[in-house]
Amino acid sequence: MCGIVAAAAQRDVVPILVEGLRRLEYRGYDSAGVAVLTGDEIQRRRRVGKVTELDQAILDQPLQGGLGIAHTRWATHGEPTEHNAHPHISEDNLAIVHNGIIENHAELKEMLKAKGYRFESETDTEVVAHLVNDQTKQGKDLLAAVQAAIHELQGAYALVVMSKADTSRLVAARMGCPVVVGLGEGENYIASDVQALLTETRRFQFLEDGDVAEMTVSGVRIFDTDGNPVERKISESSLSADAVEKGEYAHYMLKEIFEQPRALADTLSERVAGNRILEAVFGPKAQAIFEKVKRVHIVACGTSYHAGLVAQYYIEQGAGLPCRVEVASEYRYRNPVVSEGALFIAISQSGETADTLAALRYAKESGYLATAAICNVPESSLVRESDICLMTRAGPEIGVASTKAFTTQLVALALLGVALARHNGMTDRIERAYIRQLLHVPVLVEHALKLEPQIREWAKHFADKRHALFLGRGPTYPVAMEGALKLKEISYIHAEAYAAGELKHGPLALVDAEMPVVAVAPNNALVEKLKSNLEEVRARGGRLFIFADPDAGIEPSEGMEVMTMPDHIEPLQAPLVYTVPLQLLSYHVALIRGTDVDQPRNLAKSVTVE
Ligand code: G6P
User: Fold this and answer.
1) Which pTM does this prediction carry?
2) pLDDT digits (tens, 9 = 90+) for 297-344
3) Which atom of ligand 1 is nearest to the CA of 302?
4) Short-list 569, 519, 511, CA closest to 541
5) Is the distance from CB of 472 to CB of 479 less than 8 angstroms?
6) What lines the ligand 1 site, CB under 6 Å?
7) Residues 192 and 177 sit within 8 Å (Cβ to Cβ)
């Protein structure tokens, strides 16, 4: 994880760097730092904590310069302390910021120590600083030194180096972690993500793995792994700088929850016509691929994994195709057996999650029919490397706890399910009915958002608890899992989700008045069974909080609170709509507990390390 920003300009770059870091905090926020070249001196400020701490440090002790690098950290090697914060400096000659993990850092460290280099941090990054410095001391210029040093590295990195010996340029390199170059007028920038640079430019070039870029105020030269100059396409970003502002909302998470009707409508728009799906939206190769799909394998992490678990229902029950879903960190190391006609689907908000990307790369070598991505970031590695894709159009998601990305993934996966079903015997009539239901989802979500005042009241019952249980059955079981994940992520209350039928096989032993039990109860074929499971909880003195369909026949009574969901939610729509009150519940519980809603402790939005 971690976020990097760098700039070369004929003005002071410190404000550009600090604003960039602020916009990258979603990538990590346990410490931050900046270094600039002032004359031929490297000046550095670093602080533990968020970018505001660094900002204060700069106000207290100003620094300025036309060439600079900056970093916001999510610790992997070494505690979040000031001496582990980036930039790291080698012998006062050069400074470096790095995102990723250098796997062979221990042996490199021994080699460098033997050469007399002193280490001031526990990070793997300092190894790279000394390696590059060592190359410059052998007479290489900064570009050649970085090119030579990265040959020694194993692992993943996005890095930028600044040297006292060359006060006009920065050198960046990418392997496995994102790096984008921003092109300005008489100034240029580098960052982990376009969001960092949107206040400065809309013109970007994305580095590819193995690329090294040399940047000055007047231009950028990019070289591939073999050192040959390469051209990388210049893209114009359509994102606006204020798409990443909070506006009237107290937190990004709340803003993003309320953006869902719009985001869902955007994700559906232009993808259907006449209540039928337009297959071309998956890309030119899609139709030929869909015709041959016999089974589906979905891989993802975190919230995106939960979206995959819902999609399993869309694909098995809707399209009649066998579907397996698993977390990427397990998949990539278990030598999966790939059967003929298997479509691999990776789901990821960021498209940069290290485990998901590694799984995709593994899948590409493993004999799948094709690879598909469901992703929110068009320029991401996942999208670029998959055969076909469908973009969610959630817009930038800043809150670490994923909300609108999840629900837009669900509609995108429902569309994919319908497309696959069409090739597996679904009639036009059913396809039209499904698409009509999907098009109605934004309105249902709008209605579900109106439950907020009641949910705020319910939150009071959770705020002083240490544990909570979430129950669901069928396609709303993954929704319960997502609800539990949201609560633990942002309120630090231990929350577990169970398939309600499993309750009696263990978790019922935990149920008492101190353990609130949340249940999602749409009116589907399983509702009667769910009701029996809820009785099991009530009989043990458990306190139930149920989000129920008006026709589910679940009435409030002693020990059982019931919140009525909007009318007429179809099974296809239920996972989408029932997710919303669970998001609001965790938000309001966290608000009462006073935790950091948008940037919960120990987590990061984009996990680009294994
Ligand atoms: C992190 C985030 C989660 C997210 C997961 C997968 O853990 O905190 O919110 O679900 O990564 O991210 P992706 O970008 O691949 O969906």
Assistant:
1) 0.79
2) 999 999 999 999 999 999 999 899 999 999 999 998 898 999 999 999
3) 10
4) 511
5) yes
6) 301-304, 348-350, 353, 356, 400, 402, 603, 605-607
7) yes
